[in-house]
């Protein structure tokens, strides 16, 4: 894997809000078919880091390479152009619209005359939902009327539908029950097998250890370090998160 | 409401809020009709009511988009005044010298000029709001003062009259109507078109294998639309043109007044036809275009819209440009109806327009609002005012009642939304 070109390379990324250095010269990378976990306390800068990749924020500095080539990502549209899809921590759903409208927001299916084709979008939404979350049945109500888990599956469906190459999942299981969480885990494994690269942000160390190949830990906007999962224990990771120290052995 | 009735209306696909508004409107009409001893629900009064509603209702459809995106436009009344004066000055003081007095093209040039001017001014205000991030409330409060002042400047406060005769037809006077046969034709055509659209939508849904409404429900909805539209046409056709005006019309056409007097009737007024066209276009825009979809998405969650790649700043410019263009159309109707343009044109209209949209279910917190709701809202407000005037309620009490009704309507709306879990 190491002599392959990385799918994503973020080099020396930094961004500050006022005086707050939210992300402070961080470099991470991601290979095809790999899941990289991002861990760290609340406010460590994980969401901010991946938002620079998804086009939500414009970095103050640093460079992003996609397949080894310098990428210009100035807005979410650019990121979608590079086949980067994101499940945001906040889900980023328009609560007043139904599942289909949210799934296709910004990429509506159109009739031959150029009008929004709600029926076609609903049909597609039903198809993908039957695979992702067969319990999902509410297709014409505003997503504000849905449960947390259902809303999350809409956000996940949106990221998966458009054949992403790079998937960013920011706390994708935060609102899910055990069964739905298991479904997401299976989805991650399936997508990984299809060769996608996935950044997975999660609070659950156990989840991350199970699903990820490598883990990058952040603290106070800085990268503590990146380790291979097989080289470390849960306690090593905890130490990195809490103390901000890399374990002595097996640095990779 | 019992469960049975609820499921009945649910299968019709009519939501509670629409039903409530129609109920309120009918209740108002019946009440005023009883109090005035049958003078309210007459062809004559409903003709006037619909013509009076048209100008505010046209603007209210645009205000829906503005409010849905969590903005407000306080400038529409003043802007209506300014555009009205500009169009008046153009057709009375300039165009006769350019193309000749009474030329057929005067009204067309005037309307195009007005709508373009409205769109330009609207997009400028939208640009300040979207790109310079000055709150809409402030920008349009400024516009409220600026355009009223500018309206005075156009002619130093002098009333512009008389307006072009063809232009005046757009205001819906004695001759500014479709007349009998065209009114029938419009009623029938509109009904058939509605049925056709219902059929197409049903066919599309069936093709995707979705559940559709029961057939009787589809027919009922189509039937209601047909009865309302054809009924309105019939009602307007039952409004005879007064003898003296009819005589003049016959004379102008070089005809003899028939024995037994004129059988001429008003029919549907042109401003109402304009409103109908605008309503259809705006509904279509809201539901079936990307622009409309983005308006609602941005209103529901601006961040989500942004993250979906929607250019919300440009969207704001477009929304206000549309509002400006619709204000110009309202200015055409209002000044044509008056037959002149004066500095008072559109005074306080911003409040009527906002009230109409809000009573019609546009939530100031964003994300919700319908075109038909706003038009119904305008009709309810106008009914309330005309009714009170007819009953003889004095002006101060009128404004108190309207104010209370506005607050009450929004409160009911909030309770309704909370119950529906929206
Ligand atoms: N849009 C913003 N404006 C100001 N500060 C922000 C913004 N986004 C994030 N921050 C700050 O950046 C820091 C990192 O936040 P975040 O990336 O959300 O952390 P995490 O996702 O690791 O919990 C926090 O201190 C947060 O307050
Ligand atoms: Mg976060």
Q: For the residues shown, what is the average pLDDT of chain B?
A: 92
For the largest beta-sheet of chain A, the strand count, sense and barrel status come to: 6 strands, mixed
Structural class of chain B: mainly alpha
- Total separate domains of chain A: 2
Q: Specify the number of helices of chain A.
A: 8
Number of beta-strand segments of chain A: 10
Strand order of the largest sheet of chain A: 6-7-8-3-9-10
CATH architecture of the largest domain in chain A: 3-Layer(aba) Sandwich
**Chain pair forming the biggest interface:** A-B, 32 and 31 residues
What is the helix/strand order of chain B?
A: HHHHHHHHHHHHHHHHH
| Rounded Rg of chain B | 22 Å
Give the assembly state of these chains: heterodimer
Number of domains of chain B: 2
Please provide the count of β strands of chain B. 0
Please mark out the parts of chain A with pLDDT under 50 across 5 or more consecutive residues, or reply none: none
Count the DSSP helices of chain B: 17
Summarize the structure.
By secondary structure, chain A is of the alpha/beta class. Chain A is 33% helix and 25% strand. Chain A contains eight helices and ten strands.
Describe, in plain words, how this protein is organized in 3D.
- The complex is a heterodimer of chains A (252) and B (422).
- Chain A is an alpha/beta fold.
- Chain A is 33% helix and 25% strand.
- Chain A is built from eight helices and ten strands.
- Chain A has helices at residues 46-54, 76-81, 99-103, 118-132, 148-161, 178-193, 205-211, 234-243, and strands spanning 8-17, 20-30, 35-39, 61-66, 69-71, 84-87, 166-170, 197-201, 214-219, 222-228.
- In chain A, helix 4 packs across helix 5.
- Chain A is globular, with a radius of gyration of 18 Å.
- The model of chain A has no long low-confidence stretch (mean pLDDT 92).
- With 422 residues, chain B is mainly alpha-helical.
- The model of chain B has no long low-confidence stretch (mean pLDDT 92).
- Chain B is 74% helix and 0% strand.
- In chain B, 43% of the residues are buried.
- Chain B is built from 17 helices and no strands.
- Chain B folds into two domains: 54-176 and 269-369, no CATH class; 178-267, no CATH class.
- Chain A binds chain B through residues 54, 56, 75-77, 80, 86, 88, 90-97, 101-102, 105-108, 110, 115-116, 119-120, 122-123, 142, 144-145, and chain B through 204-205, 207-210, 284, 287-290, 292-293, 296-301, 303-310, 367-368, 421-422.
- Bound molecules: adenosine-5'-diphosphate (ADP) and magnesium ion (MG).
- Magnesium ion (MG) binds next to helix 1 of chain A.
């Amino acid at each position: 894997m190491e002599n392959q070109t990385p799918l994503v390379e973020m080099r020396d990324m930094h961004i500050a809000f006022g005086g707050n250095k939210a992300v402070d010269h961080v470099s991470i990378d991601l290979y095809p078919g790999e899941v990289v976990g991002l861990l760290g306390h609340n406010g460590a800068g994980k969401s901010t880091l991946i938002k620079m990749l998804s086009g939500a924020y414009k970095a103050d500095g640093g460079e992003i390479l996609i397949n080894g080539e310098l990428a210009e990502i100035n807005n979410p549209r650019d990121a979608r152009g590079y086949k980067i899809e994101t499940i945001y921590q906040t889900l980023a759903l328009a609560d007043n619209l139904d599942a289909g409208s949210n799934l296709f927001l910004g990429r509506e299916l159109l009739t031959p005359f150029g009008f929004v084709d709600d029926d076609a979008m609903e049909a597609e939404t039903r198809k993908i939902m039957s695979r992702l979350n067969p319990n999902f049945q509410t297709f014409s109500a505003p997503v504000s009327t849905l449960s947390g888990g259902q809303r999350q599956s809409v956000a996940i469906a949106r990221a998966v539908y458009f054949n992403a190459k790079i998937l960013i999942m920011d706390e994708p299981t935060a609102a899910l029950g055990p069964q739905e969480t298991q479904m997401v885990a299976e989805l991650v494994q399936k997508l990984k097998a299809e060769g996608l690269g996935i950044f997975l942000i999660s609070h659950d160390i156990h989840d991350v250890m199970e699903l990820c190949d490598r883990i990058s830990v952040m603290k106070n906007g800085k990268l503590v370090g990146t380790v291979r999962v097989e080289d470390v224990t849960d306690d090593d990771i905890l130490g990195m998160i809490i103390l901000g120290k890399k374990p002595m052995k097996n640095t990779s | 409401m019992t469960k049975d009735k609820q499921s009945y209306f649910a299968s019709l696909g009519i939501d509670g809020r629409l039903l409530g508004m129609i109920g309120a409107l009918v209740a108002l009409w019946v009440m005023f009709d009883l109090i005035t001893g049958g003078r309210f629900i007459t062809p004559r009064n409903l003709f006037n009511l619909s013509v009076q509603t048209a100008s505010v209702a046209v603007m209210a459809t645009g205000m829906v988009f503005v409010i849905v995106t969590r903005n407000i436009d306080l400038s529409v009344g003043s802007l209506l005044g300014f555009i009205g004066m500009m169009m008046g000055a153009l057709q009375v003081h300039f165009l006769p010298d350019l193309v000749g007095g009474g030329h057929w093209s005067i009204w067309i040039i005037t309307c195009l000029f007005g709508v373009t001017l409205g769109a330009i001014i609207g997009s400028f205000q939208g640009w300040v709001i979207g790109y310079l991030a000055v709150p809409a409330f402030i920008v349009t409060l400024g516009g409220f003062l600026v355009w009223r002042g500018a309206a005075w400047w156009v002619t130093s406060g002098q009333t512009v009259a008389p307006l072009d005769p063809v232009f005046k037809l757009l205001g819906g006077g004695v001759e500014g109507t479709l007349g009998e046969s065209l009114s029938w034709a419009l009623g029938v055509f509109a009904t058939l078109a509605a049925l056709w659209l219902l059929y197409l939508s049903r066919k599309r849904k069936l093709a995707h294998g979705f559940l559709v409404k029961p057939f009787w429900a589809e027919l009922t909805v189509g039937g209601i639309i047909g009865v309302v539209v054809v009924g309105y046409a019939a009602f307007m056709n039952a409004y005879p043109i007064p003898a003296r005006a009819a005589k003049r019309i016959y004379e102008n056409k070089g005809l003899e007044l028939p024995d037994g007097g004129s059988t001429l009737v008003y029919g549907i007024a042109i401003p109402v036809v304009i409103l109908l066209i605008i309503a259809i276009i705006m509904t279509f825009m809201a539901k079936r275009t990307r622009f409309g979809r983005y308006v609602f998405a941005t209103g529901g969650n601006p961040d989500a819209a942004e993250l979906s790649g929607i250019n919300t700043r440009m969207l704001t410019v477009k929304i206000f440009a549309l509002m400006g263009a619709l204000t110009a159309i309202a200015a055409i109707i209002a000044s044509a109806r008056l037959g002149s343009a004066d500095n008072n044109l559109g005074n306080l209209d911003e409040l009527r327009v906002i009230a109409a949209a809000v009573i019609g279910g546009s939530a100031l917190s964003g994300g919700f609002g319908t075109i038909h709701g706003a038009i119904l809202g305008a009709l309810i407000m106008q009914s309330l005012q005309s009714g009170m005037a007819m009953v003889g309620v004095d002006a101060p009490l009128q404004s108190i009642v309207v104010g209370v009704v506005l607050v009450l309507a929004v409160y009911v709306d909030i309770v309704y939304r909370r119950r529906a879990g929206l």
